[in-house]
Amino acid sequence: MDLRGKTVVITGAAGGIGAALAHRFAAEGATGLVLADLDATAVDALAQSINRGLTRSVTCDVTDPAQVAALVDVAHREFGPVDLFCSNAGITTGTGLDTTDEAWGRAWAVNVHAHVVAARAVLPSMVERGAGYLLQTCSAAGLLTAVGDAPYAVTKHAAVGFAEWLSMTYGDRGIKVSALCPQGVRTPMLDHGLARGHAGAQVTAAAGEVLTPEQVADAVVEGLAAERFLILPHPEVATYHQRKAADPDRWLASMRKLISRVASTA
């Protein structure tokens, strides 16, 4: 995908990867950016920092179908048909079997069902004109796992599964789909987990290079240009994924050793 002249919607845009994508897409020549987040003040400040003529900010709960439909309507009204919809919002819990049913439900709603809500809102117009792109932030946890965070591990796997289903079902109808699966990224989400001593955040920080959101945005632009399904800002994730598929028992044993090593140094 060539981003020049394109209309793009980004959810979870107020900070981290979402904000970096907004800045990079603008630099690549996108002519319409609709930036959505629950944090109205932060997302409006982001829109102003880029270019008010190029951007619109929308306060949006990605789990609410009516709000997401309204978000797509804003894009259509202000800039025209949506060329690229980036479902980027996500949450962590840092919990395991002690996770409350309410927290499980919220993780499912944001990390999985929000992708379904977005697809329902934007796909009909894309399919009608035979062109469109969905970028879904799924995390390396969707291919590997998330230590110490059962809801995140489970929901991110489901997010990858839904992205695969979309690609299989709509790929021959002009719709492109990419699953963005970074490992450690220096975002408020990771920093918050580290500050609270979450095991998953500690393992993520210890497992490899922690990238900046801008580095992830670079990988996204390159991946979109190549129209790859899996966009892996950490190339080593592909190797880990292959090892997991080739020998699950050995991979699980290696993960247990990693958890023990991190725990011993905590």
TrEMBL record:
CDD domains: SDR_c. The keyword Oxidoreductase applies. It comes from the Bacteria. InterPro entries: NAD(P)-bd_dom_sf, Sc_DH/Rdtase_CS, SDR_fam. It holds the Pfam family adh_short. Signal peptide: none annotated. The keyword Oxidoreductase applies. Belongs to the short-chain dehydrogenases/reductases (SDR) family. PANTHER family: PKSB, RETINOL DEHYDROGENASE 10. This is Dehydrogenase. The lineage of its organism: Bacteria, Bacillati, Actinomycetota, Actinomycetes, Micromonosporales.
